[in-house]
Amino acid sequence: MDWNAKTISTYDSSASKLADYFKGIGARIDDIKLGIQLCGSKDSIHVVEIGCGDGRDAAEIVSRVSTYVGVDPSEGLLEIARKRLPDATFVKADALSYVYPENTDVIYAFASLLHINKSDMKLALEKASKCLRSGGIYYISLKERDEYTEEVKNDQYGERMFYYYSAAIIRDLSAP
């Protein structure tokens, strides 16, 4: 089974239900602030968010930076994001297909790379890191386990594949 296509299909078909669920969780304000702080003080900050979903974090990011691009493979979630923030830029792509702008200050990937298998994760990390300016930040959050694990989740939203990583595995995949 093509789990990437199945997962995207689930997000497309459940976009409004997921947006309601995410509303209850709220934006990751502390993480957003920390990512911007870590990139250093600059007059203009350029941010890409991989897996922006319905834009729940985008509203917080946009208000703090000069340039924002939200990237997601789910057209259903992007429709909601575009309605929520009509002046923001949203692109339909994933971490592997997106063409990152040069000299990006911060890339956020909040609970999005957890849908990428181990071999694609290495490629996604390499591709994104090439576009970061010197001192740029790649801020990711994942599901964590001691060992790399693949797990299908089937719930009220549909069927999705999740990949679990340890910090050590991510460090190894990030090594040149």
**Helical proportion, percent range:** 25-40%
Q: Main beta sheet: strand number and arrangement?
A: 5 strands, parallel
Read across the widest sheet, the strand sequence of neighbours is 3-2-1-4-5
From the alpha carbons, calculate the radius of gyration and give it in angstroms. Answer: 15 Å
Measured between the Cα atoms of the first and last residue, the distance is 31 Å
Order of helices and strands: HHHEHEHEEHEEEEH
Q: What is the strand tally?
A: 8
Shape: globular
Helix count, per DSSP? Answer: 7
Structural class: alpha/beta
Provide mean pLDDT, rounded: 93
Strand content: 25-35%
Main features:
single chain, 176 residues, alpha/beta, 5-stranded parallel sheet, 3-stranded mixed sheet, 8 strands, globular
Structure description:
Strand 4, helix 6 (about 120-130) and strand 5 form a beta-alpha-beta unit. About 35% of the residues are buried. The protein is of the alpha/beta class. The strands form 2 sheets. The protein has a 5-stranded parallel sheet with strand order 3-2-1-4-5. It has a 3-stranded mixed sheet with strand order 6-8-7. About 40% of the residues lie in helices and about 30% in strands. The mean pLDDT is about 95.
